[in-house]
């Protein structure tokens, strides 16, 4: 199937913050108010009910401020909670299956993202019906183990032009503008916001770099 959309970047956030149960969830509303427009709920060790509860907490905190919430891996949780999207890795439900199920559930507006590491993977994700590609790791990162070698900024340029790319992996205020200049639509981060003592100030620095 082909799902090329004329408004390809519509609804795809510029700054996505990955959120887990160990993060300071009391800051979610402040982060959304500061301008973070995307939150991806990721809790691989959580039970389904815990993940549902975490997603609903995030939705309640950030949706009033116009931010979107996606769920990592779990289409069922995204649909059950009314989240804005789902992000799928290489070993998760296939993008075309997720799109078909979402459409059949009356959620043809659901954002579907796919993890990609090269232009061919982005092309396949586009053909399968993805709305965006999470592209990385661009730089070395300690936020997630078992990742391949960093792809580098040039890889962003090679993969750009098909789907909106959210660059991930070692992205911070010092590197965000570089990947956007290379062709990324936006960035996804973890440590760049959650590690500093003031997550809101760190997010504001990132947003300024993306402006």
UniProtKB/TrEMBL annotation:
SUPFAM superfamilies (alphabetical): Thiamin phosphate synthase (SSF51391)
Pfam family, one: TMP-TENI
InterPro entries per the UniProt record, alphabetical: Aldolase_TIM (IPR013785), ThiamineP_synth_sf (IPR036206), ThiamineP_synth_TenI (IPR022998), TMP_synthase (IPR034291)
Cofactor(s) named in the record: Mg(2+)
Enzyme class: transferase
Binding, Mg(2+): 73, 92
Involved pathway(s): Cofactor biosynthesis; thiamine diphosphate biosynthesis; thiamine phosphate from 4-amino-2-methyl-5-diphosphomethylpyrimidine and 4-methyl-5-(2-phosphoethyl)-thiazole: step 1/1
Cofactor note: Binds 1 Mg(2+) ion per subunit.
Keywords: Magnesium, Metal-binding, Thiamine biosynthesis, Transferase
Binding site for 4-amino-2-methyl-5-(diphosphooxymethyl)pyrimidine: 40-44, 72, 115, 144
Keyword field contains Plastid: no
E.C. no: 2.5.1.3
Reactions mediated catalytically: 2-(2-carboxy-4-methylthiazol-5-yl)ethyl phosphate + 4-amino-2-methyl-5-(diphosphooxymethyl)pyrimidine + 2 H(+) = thiamine phosphate + CO2 + diphosphate; 2-[(2R,5Z)-2-carboxy-4-methylthiazol-5(2H)-ylidene]ethyl phosphate + 4-amino-2-methyl-5-(diphosphooxymethyl)pyrimidine + 2 H(+) = thiamine phosphate + CO2 + diphosphate; 4-methyl-5-(2-phosphooxyethyl)-thiazole + 4-amino-2-methyl-5-(diphosphooxymethyl)pyrimidine + H(+) = thiamine phosphate + diphosphate
Domain Thiamine phosphate synthase/TenI stretches: 23-193
Domain of life: Bacteria
Residues annotated to bind 2-[(2R,5Z)-2-carboxy-4-methylthiazol-5(2H)-ylidene]ethyl phosphate: 141-143, 170
Keyword set includes Cytoplasm: no
Annotated HAMAP family: TMP_synthase
PANTHER family on file: THIAMINE-PHOSPHATE PYROPHOSPHORYLASE, THIAMINE-PHOSPHATE SYNTHASE
General function of this protein: Condenses 4-methyl-5-(beta-hydroxyethyl)thiazole monophosphate (THZ-P) and 2-methyl-4-amino-5-hydroxymethyl pyrimidine pyrophosphate (HMP-PP) to form thiamine monophosphate (TMP).
Protein family per UniProt: Belongs to the thiamine-phosphate synthase family.
Record protein name field: Thiamine-phosphate synthase
Upper taxonomic lineage: Bacteria, Bacillati, Actinomycetota, Actinomycetes, Propionibacteriales
Designated gene of the protein: thiE
């Amino acid at each position: 199937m082909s799902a090329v959309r004329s408004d390809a970047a519509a609804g795809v956030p510029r700054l996505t913050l990955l959120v887990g149960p160990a993060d300071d969830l009391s800051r979610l509303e402040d982060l959304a108010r500061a301008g973070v427009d995307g939150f991806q709920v990721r809790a691989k060790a959580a039970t389904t009910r815990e993940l549902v509860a975490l997603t609903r907490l995030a939705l309640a905190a950030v949706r009033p401020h116009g931010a979107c919430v996606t769920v990592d891996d779990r289409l069922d949780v995204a649909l059950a909670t009314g989240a804005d999207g789902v992000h799928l890795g290489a070993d998760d439900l296939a993008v075309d299956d997720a799109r078909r199920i979402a459409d059949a559930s009356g959620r043809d507006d659901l954002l579907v993202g796919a993890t990609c590491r090269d232009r061919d993977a982005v092309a396949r994700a586009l053909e399968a019906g993805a709305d965006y590609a999470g592209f990385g790791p661009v730089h070395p990162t300690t936020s997630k183990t078992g990742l391949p070698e960093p792809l580098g900024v040039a890889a962003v340029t090679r993969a750009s032009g098909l789907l909106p790319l959210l660059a991930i992996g070692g992205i911070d205020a010092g590197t965000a503008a570089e990947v956007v200049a290379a062709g990324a639509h936006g960035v996804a981060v973890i440590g760049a916001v959650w590690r500093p003592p003031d997550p809101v100030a760190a997010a504001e620095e990132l947003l300024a770099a993306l402006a």
